[in-house]
Amino acid sequence: MTSTQRPVRITDVAALAGVSPGTVSKALNNTGSLKEATRQRVRAAADKLGFVPDPDARWLAARRSYTVGLLSADAAGRFSIPVMLGAENALAAGEMSALLATTRYDPVREAYHLKAFQARRVDGIIVTGRTTDPRPPVDVDIPVVYAFAPSSNPDDASVVPDDTDGTTKIIQHLLATGRRRIAHVGGRPRKHTSEVRAAAAVAALADHGLRLVSEPMFGDWSESWGRRAVDQLLLRHALTATGDQLLAADLVRAERHQAELSDLDLGLDAIICGSDQIARGVTDRLRELSIDVPAQLAVTGFDNWEVMALSSRPPLTTIDLGLEDLGRRAAEQLLDAIAGNPHHGIEYTPMELIPRASA
Amino acid sequence: MTSTQRPVRITDVAALAGVSPGTVSKALNNTGSLKEATRQRVRAAADKLGFVPDPDARWLAARRSYTVGLLSADAAGRFSIPVMLGAENALAAGEMSALLATTRYDPVREAYHLKAFQARRVDGIIVTGRTTDPRPPVDVDIPVVYAFAPSSNPDDASVVPDDTDGTTKIIQHLLATGRRRIAHVGGRPRKHTSEVRAAAAVAALADHGLRLVSEPMFGDWSESWGRRAVDQLLLRHALTATGDQLLAADLVRAERHQAELSDLDLGLDAIICGSDQIARGVTDRLRELSIDVPAQLAVTGFDNWEVMALSSRPPLTTIDLGLEDLGRRAAEQLLDAIAGNPHHGIEYTPMELIPRASA
């Protein structure tokens, strides 16, 4: 009897678990995007049937191309580039080559590149995005790590920058230098980055029994929003020598050097901004109004985008996102997964405070 | 006799031509960096000996990996990125994949990546650089095209942006809108880009019997140089109502709104800048002095770097370098070379005038 018994096949496991053979392969090889429950159901079915993967197939699977695919929605992006460089650097150190492919937000191009990567038998794929908003997982049968933009499947391996860490460092720096009345000028509303940073500022202040001077403000990621936000904040919080609220006409006179705001109570001592671009608009507008940064008002940026941070007058105290390190971590996680030890869930990489003259 | 005659080998051709076998291969396959004289000497030797390349070797050489190496000194650069994207895009359209490698100006890393490319049997290599200054050729036995930074060997295939074309378009636009007294504020001195643009401005004006109001000025590629250059130009060219030269004290008073420069003869009606960053500094400084752009003075940038060009007040009329098209052309030249039809020498790609409010 035993001699005629045919070996258990992957299709048998698939039938018992009620999934496709591809899903069985993913579950047993710890690759792809699967719910943990599915993975466990497949493993149980394989155990029950005594399924032994075909050694030839395993050998084929073990053949490595020492090539990794870098899939970027937006390779021109300020954020994707350092991530890709960090990844490429770490891969080269591991004698791996990196195939570059950009999708330009086009699902057809993404599908084409994923197919091309698999045709070239890449050992794994790093997927980067333009923002930290979660993105749908890619459906492939090899290890994948998501960098900067996490996968919307929480079981996938994602490496994202820790905006809470960066924002907390900014708040701690301001508190340590004696600032208490802090306003928050964020970027575009309802974006993951904007919301996490605003919430982290509120939480870090609450740890010291403090609050923002007013609700977090949102606009967009531009200099002009930073300039407008300054006027909105001063009209809301600054008081004239006689204790009256400031009027738009007072700003016009200050801009024309017909009045000084330097001896007024601005109602604020720091503005934390959601990006260096916004902060550059803030310092430019404060300069037009002859309000001294940092003596009267501290200003902080976010991103450490040097062209903005260094050309601001004064140069911006800001947060470096550590994107090259993030790319390196993504590459390390991918190399682990290729070696059979996949990561799951989101790993947050730390940020660094870059102190300059503005705060 | 004929039956015992051994076939002519590549080493025989090499000995007769007085070169290495590798050079014979490059010469007969139209690849690598060779002087045209060397190429012709090798061909003459091969003809004289009746050399027929080994068909097996030719077949091996014909095996294509459909992979191209992108070697970048500086993948984070504002210039290399669009070039690589344009190339990657054109290669993907041709079913070719792109291996990315960055050298970070390190010759050891460059040598490592070139070796890795060849080990992976890439069909060809695109080499990009951070500036348009010529760079030494790479020594490989497969087709190479240089993009943005040309090879210092004029026989190699290079694709570079046509700075003369861009500068001429700027001058023509200014002349067409009635500007005659034009100053040139360039970037870093003794750089290829700076010198070509300054010379092109002088030549384009000479075609209309005009000259720059003063010698081209050089500094660096920064906003602060743009701001300083404005003061230098006004102190040199502007006249007060009484016909005297402007003094530094007049600029201080204008900045404090204690004097108006709006009714003075500035001695200029346009400032053309070597980059958008310089031009942003120029418009910022003119704004501080309440000099109206473009009514009193037209200002132009170069690069169409949107973060600078659009946040300038007013937004900058500038030149788009067409870098994605340049990358695409480099890829097309490389595909030609891989197909056996190599290009030689420098191909210049055109630039585009982007008219906005500043001129």
UniProtKB/TrEMBL annotation, chains A, B:
<dbReference type="InterPro" id="IPR010982">
    <property type="entry name" value="Lambda_DNA-bd_dom_sf"/>
</dbReference>
<dbReference type="InterPro" id="IPR028082">
    <property type="entry name" value="Peripla_BP_I"/>
</dbReference>
<dbReference type="Pfam" id="PF13377">
    <property type="entry name" value="Peripla_BP_3"/>
</dbReference>
<dbReference type="GO" id="GO:0003700">
    <property type="term" value="F:DNA-binding transcription factor activity"/>
</dbReference>
<feature type="domain" description="HTH lacI-type">
    <location>
        <begin position="8"/>
        <end position="62"/>
    </location>
</feature>
<protein>
    <submittedName>
        <fullName>LacI family transcriptional regulator</fullName>
    </submittedName>
</protein>
<dbReference type="InterPro" id="IPR046335">
    <property type="entry name" value="LacI/GalR-like_sensor"/>
</dbReference>
<keyword id="KW-0805">Transcription regulation</keyword>
<keyword id="KW-0804">Transcription</keyword>
<keyword id="KW-0238">DNA-binding</keyword>
<dbReference type="InterPro" id="IPR000843">
    <property type="entry name" value="HTH_LacI"/>
</dbReference>
<dbReference type="Pfam" id="PF00356">
    <property type="entry name" value="LacI"/>
</dbReference>
<dbReference type="GO" id="GO:0000976">
    <property type="term" value="F:transcription cis-regulatory region binding"/>
</dbReference>
